[in-house]
Amino acid sequence: MRTFLTLAAVAALSTPAAADRFEARLVAPTPQGGILAARLIVDGGPGGVRWTMACTDEGDLRGRPARIRTYQGSAPFEPEWVMGTAPEGRFTLALRGRPLLATSLEGCPKMGVPILRSFP
C-alpha cells in the first residue's frame, strides 16, 4: 500500500494538474538592433494541454516592420515533456517539476532557439 501511494505522489508531481497555467515571456535584441519577443501560454487540462504562442519576426530588409504571429494548438502529455508544433517549427516544454524549469521556443519565425531557464 505504501508503494502505491508513493508512486501516485510521484506521478502527481510530474504531470500538470487540470488548472495549471504557465506563461513564459522572452524579449531579446537582434544583431540588427531590433527586438524579438515571444509569449507562450500553456493551460493544463484532462489528458493534455492547450497552448497559445505569439511572437514577432524581425521584419525584412525592405524596411517592413516586425509582425506578430500567433499560433494555437493542443498537445498530449508525455513523461515530463509536452511538444507543440507550429507551421514554422516547434517548441518544447519541460514539465519535470513545478515551477516550469525550461522552455525552448523554436516555432517563431526567424527567432532562432531562445531558451528560458528556471521560470518561476
Describe the structure.
With 120 residues, the protein is mainly beta. It has one domain. 11% of the residues lie in helices and 48% in strands. It has 1 helix and 8 strands. It has one helix at 2-14; strands at 21-29, 35-45, 48-56, 68-76, 81-86, 89-94, 102-105, 115-117. The chain has a 4-stranded antiparallel sheet, with no helix packed on it. It has a 4-stranded antiparallel sheet with strand order 5-6-7-8, with no helix packed on it. A hairpin with a 7-residue loop joins strand 6 and strand 7. It is elongated, with a radius of gyration of 17 Å.
SSE layout and pairing:
Layout: H1 2-14, E1 21-29, E2 35-45, E3 48-56, E4 68-76, E5 81-86, E6 89-94, E7 102-105, E8 115-117
Antiparallel strand pairs: 1-2, 2-3, 3-4, 5-6, 6-7, 7-8
Helix content: 10-25%
Order of helices and strands: HEEEEEEEE
Q: Which parts are unreliable, with pLDDT below 50 for 5 consecutive residues or more? A: 1-19, 109-120
Terminus-to-terminus distance: 34 Å
Q: What percent of residues are in strands?
A: over 45%
Morphology call? elongated
The chain-level mean pLDDT equals 59
Strand-pairing-aware structural class: mainly beta
Strand arrangement, major sheet: 1-2-3-4
